UniProtKB/TrEMBL annotation:
Protein name: UPF0340 protein IV45_GL001368
Family, per entry: Belongs to the UPF0340 family.
Lineage: Bacteria, Bacillati, Bacillota, Bacilli, Lactobacillales
UniProt cross-references to Pfam families, sorted A to Z: DUF436
Length: 190
């Protein structure tokens, strides 16, 4: 299993690094992760979770995000209404409302349990609006990412056996025919 976990962690690190580079993430951004360890190990989502795989993946993600100052939110499964584990300080800074629930292997999942084990002061919140994220196993993170969402293509489309997608976001372009989308200082000639 160690060799398989090493390969999975390498895939996570490569895909995540490429996503961060292409998505122009910066210090203070919130990054959401959805994770089905069942899918990673080649099983149907929710049917065969692996705490060992969850721990390895979350530790790898934390090892990449933390030095960059990017905050992590780990989405739970539908049994927790897709609530997310975040650091209490992040929730307070972003005005996120805490909810009372603790993840279990079949309610929240292995990724959330691993986040609780590896965060300094973890809490659950109901919703976030992240800059972007990584969806390992088709867990539907789109509801947690700011509008307008942008798909990111990396060299890693599968982690283990799980289909993996990546998202970033950008501010909405508003206005009409007269609007500009790059700064052009106003210089009126007299």
């Amino acid at each position: 299993m160690t060799e398989q976990l090493d390969k999975i962690c390498a895939q996570v690190k490569t895909g995540l690094t490429e996503c961060l580079d292409q998505g122009h993430f910066k210090k203070g951004d919130l990054f959401v992760v959805g994770l089905s360890t069942s899918e990673v190990t080649g099983h149907e989502i929710g049917k065969d979770p692996s705490i060992e795989v969850g721990r390895a993946i979350i530790k790898t993600i934390i090892s990449v995000l933390r030095p960059l100052g990017i905050h992590l939110a780990v989405q739970g499964c539908q049994h927790l209404n897709r609530a997310l584990v975040v650091e209490r300080a992040v929730a307070e800074k972003m005005g996120l409302e805490e909810v009372t629930v603790f993840p279990q292997i079949h309610a929240g999942g292995s990724g959330q349990i691993a986040a609780f084990e590896n965060f300094e002061d973890p809490i659950e919140v109901e919703h976030v609006q992240a800059k972007g994220g990584m969806d390992i196993g088709d867990t539907s993170i789109g509801m947690q990412v700011k509008f307008v969402q942008l798909p990111i293509r990396t060299s890693v489309s599968e982690i283990g056996h799980a289909h993996t997608t990546y998202l970033s976001s950008r501010p909405k372009l508003i206005g009409g025919a007269r609007a500009k989308y790059t700064w052009d200082p106003f210089n009126e000639k007299h």
